[in-house]
């Protein structure tokens, strides 16, 4: 027969409500415990720092040294280093008691900020200043223009390349040189001044370059030193490099002509050779003392001759 | 819940809706089960993934702090300006990880701006989970490397797990909810069917009880009627008995008394005559002869009266022989052929009341034949069955109209009434088939039962 269930109990909303309340309490307790554990596990999601000004006495910066007045400190783009070091050497030879320290590459951006922070006397820049950098109201002194060349390993049989072929190379549409050697493209990091110089002339190159970065199609190096080493020892390697660095350092790489136009002061000045970039010094204010002497030196005839002999075009251009 | 009124008019409770009861109480538990099953695995996955991410973030922070420490020592001051190389170095730690941001922070808690772009593979405003490691130079903490981890991977994985486990939870909950519910519904249905059958049975039973009660009521009414009839018969018997006694007394007074008085007078006369000598001898002889006649008549009267009081012959010779004598007597007194068919042993084994009733009925019937029927042939039958006595007296006489419209007190009326009363008093039936010039057929059936508990119905049928 029927179990012993009181019909009044069946219809009683109180017992059912109590059951629902019990379930809700259990669920709430479970959610509460889980939430507490998660909060404890994840911790705060707020940024555990501020974005204010770093104290000048920060231990992160304490290794800085005071600059002697007879020493000129320069730091910045790697593209500037070969020429600047040659100029520094010549400056020291003609200016006894003066010293020039050219630090390893910290990039154009680093050079701008180091100059702005007055960590160095001059920042070395190999690209146009960005808007944010222009806002710093720095003194910019262009001193040389250098052709940007498509440099290849010495084993590559080609001597010239067209702009279309250049795009094909970086887009991966051409995979072998004329002798069948596989083409190995060496890219610089995004923002590199040589890439910017090409992109200024070939807007398609910028898109192809970005696609290559995104697809990790080519090997990317982040310094001129790494680029010159890669081009020197990698069969079929090709990359953008400075003609002045090749000449000045006598690197074992071959610059290709662009549409049979060889990079030279004349071809660059006439814009028949399309790719070039300007090297400049930046400082917070007009230099005095040794830095001012250095600035005058690089604008002198000795320095301009040295530039021309090294594949650079002295700036300002001759009238 | 509904209530219904049963056939007998009282209110009964319907069976409880067990399915509804069970469903109402299972639903919260099923919801709890569904939620717990659905959320447990995704939550556990989320927790474990978060712990993994935290460990990964901590390891990355340690590596970044170590790299920054080397950079600071290798290139004092200028290290922070070589952002790209430093960042490229740091990004090597964040490839294929959930590290969204890496920040170098001074001891004062101020972030060192290394680049315009965040140090990490992702940007966005989503909340990050932060881990840090100290940057130490010569065992002195100069800052901290912080790594921010996005929880997208953990969240996406947990949400992905939520789909199958949610389905699992819902499936389990549905099974647990519906299977007992269906079973309970079947059980409820069977219970309802059983209750319906029971209700029908109760209704039938109540009808049967009502019918039986009606039958008992009718039987009780009949019994009361019979008791009333029995009381009437008893009263009638008493009256008959009293009347019979008066008749006997009158008979004795009128006949035997008169006769004995005459005999006494005659005997006085005879004594006087005897004293007178021989001259009176002739008168004595005559008187003696008359006295003898009177004595004979008186004896006959007394015999007849005794016979009316009780058939002593039954005690002497038994029922069968007594009936046979009745038949013989009728045959001797009237010019009638009598067939006496007696199917009974000489010792009938009947109670005295039954024997007396049988005897009286046949005696009365034969007396009526002798007085009124003018029959030439009479058939008397007696048959004894184990539980029944059957009597018949059939004559071919002139018959009569036995309808109740006959005037009361007409010839033979009281005799027939007495016969009927005797028979009914013993629980039997009497039927008289007769019509003018068609003879008379008296049929009596008596049960072989006794009316009194001691089996002696003599008092009942003494009349």
Task: Explain what this protein looks like in three dimensions.
The complex is a heterodimer of chains A (319) and B (463). Chain A is an alpha/beta fold. Chain A has two domains: 71-145 and 277-314, D-Maltodextrin-Binding Protein, domain 2, CATH 3.40.190.10; 147-276, D-Maltodextrin-Binding Protein, domain 2 (3-Layer(aba) Sandwich). In chain A, 42% of the residues lie in helices and 19% in strands. Chain A has 13 helices and eleven strands. In chain A, strands 1, 2, 3, 4, 5, 6, 7, 8, 9, 10 and 11 form an eleven-stranded mixed sheet that branches. In chain A, helix 3 (81-94) links the parallel strand 1 (71-76) and strand 2. Chain A is flat, with a radius of gyration of 31 Å. The N and C termini of chain A lie far apart (118 Å). With 463 residues, chain B is α+β, with helices and mostly antiparallel strands. Among the domains of chain B are: 12-172, Beta-Lactamase (2-Layer Sandwich); 310-463, Histidine kinase-like ATPase, C-terminal domain (Heat Shock Protein 90, 2-Layer Sandwich). Chain B is 61% helix and 16% strand. A five-stranded mixed sheet of chain B has the order 6-7-8-10-9, covered by helices on one side. A three-stranded antiparallel sheet of chain B has the order 3-5-4, with helices on one face. In chain B, strands 1-2 form a two-stranded antiparallel sheet. In chain B, helix 1 (18-74) packs antiparallel against helix 2 (83-94), helix 3 (152-276) packs antiparallel against helix 4 and helix 7 runs antiparallel to helix 8 (413-425). The longest helix of chain B has 125 residues, at 152-276. Chain B is rod-shaped, with a radius of gyration of 65 Å. The model of chain B is unreliable at 1-13, 408-412 and 451-463 (pLDDT under 50). The chains are: A alpha/beta (319), B alpha+beta (463). Chains A and B meet through helix 2 and helix 4 of A and helix 1, helix 2, strand 3, strand 4 and strand 5 of B.
